[in-house]
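Record pair follows.
FIRST:
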Amino acid sequence: MMTSVDTDLIRVLADPLRLQIVTLLAHETLCTTHLVEETGAKQTNLSNHLRVLREAGVVETEPCGRFTYYKLRPDVIETVAGSFTALATAARATRAADTKRACP
């Protein structure tokens, strides 16, 4: 069963730009300037999305001089992936047992 934390994370990751940011950060630690170059998003828009990701615990920051670098937290992604894996396992068991709820 998905928890409210899982559904909140899924909602955060459902945005196309945030998903693109997460995908980029899966491969390397980047600063806002790099992310603007890679995504083509406006800096203010990107900063807002990074704030949402940071507040959700998906990314963490690392100050470096006048820049802030962003790192993906893989444990958070694994938690969401685990929830989907549990759903897939339950669906396979339901299909195998051919479980149907009777209509009233």
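SECOND:
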Amino acid sequence: MKRKISLLLTVLLILSSFTTFAFAKEIDKDKFGTDLEFLERVVYFVLDNYQYEVDQEDILEGLYDGFFNVLDDYSVYYTPDEYSAMLDTTAGEFVGIGVQITDASGQIVVITPLPDSPAMNAGIKAGDIIKYVDGYDITGVTSSQASLLIRGDEGTSVKIGILRGEQVLNFDIVRAKVATSIVEGKIMENNIGYLKVTDFSDNTVELVEKELSEFDKSNVKKIVIDMRNNGGGTLQAAVDLLNLFVTEGPVIYVDYASGKEDIYESKLREQKYEIAVLINGGSASATEVFAGAVKYKNEGIIVGTNSFGKGIVQTLYPLKGGSGVKFTTAEYFSVNKTPVHKVGIAPDIVVENEKIDLTKYPVFSKTNKSAPGTVSLDVLAAEMILKTLGYDVNEPDGVYDQKSFEQIIKFQGDNLLYPYGTIDVATQNALYNALMKHAQGDIEDLQLKEAIKALTK
């Protein structure tokens, strides 16, 4: 028998999940009650007439999803597992093997192993394809699903099967706590410090302070702060970080729907470092809080491209049963109440880095083997990748000619593959992995170069 559900109880469950509840805006209670009754009848009608079984939890999650999806793009309902993962990310660490991954063409590809993580220590590399997790083939799953499979309790082991070119490698890795808030520091030419800040988590400021103490030992006075593709994090972490770099005064204004306004300030008496901040279209939210304060207080140079333009604040609320919701509760404004939302932060020095559009490359079949004389999309993809990687091929046209044949042999030899010129599956995988690696770091960083130049003037 199909399981029934009372929509009234569902609504009460949502409301009672919050510790405090009050209507900020009046609603038409009679119409609201009528709408709930109608929705309840619709659900009963579907359950009575739908061919297959429907799980009650799926119905509840669908109701929650539907409600929060009508608010804005940043308001969302989380299942218990998703909410737990969100809290881990906000805290700046999680338990797992420590890899950043993406799903591409149905495969889970390692973007990078995180520094000092079990994955890095085991030898997993950027471009590796995660094929198996504990013996299960995960081809076709999303990166979120793969993350949940790879994560687990601290101290437990997980078997990871990797495809690297034509090699199949197996790793037995013990899960451990891994920092998601990564701060990389180094000293570059002319004694200029470099800080890469990947997000704003609870431990971000502590990690930055650690790097600054090393800079101080070498008397570093000028720093490039790289916040490109930093999607944000907690507002408080951004304010705390500003207290290390910009002088006293208001740095952010937060206006709530209730009419309340919070003003966050820096208490730093005097700037210790001359800074340049790198941003791009992937720099959002808390990153824009930081970059905006630097720009509008004229206490640093902003280099790169316009930031994303997310000037709104979301608040996390737990629900009963371990799930949770996040929805927009306020809008923030930068120094002098300068708008950020849908505007972003414009750099003082605009510099575009060369980009590789991975979508323009045809997807390999992973089944066909192309020999000289073949005309196919596999050949076109191989020629395009070889040309991008700097191999001497003619203009890509999908025709497997002699010159492409010679360069495939060269590529196979360069990548420890059998050099016989056939574009087999192993060669296709190696070409794709080489392209991914090239796209991630083998291009000259013009933005960083300009930031260094600005600090040395």
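COMMENT: DSSP finds 13 helices and 19 strands in the chain.
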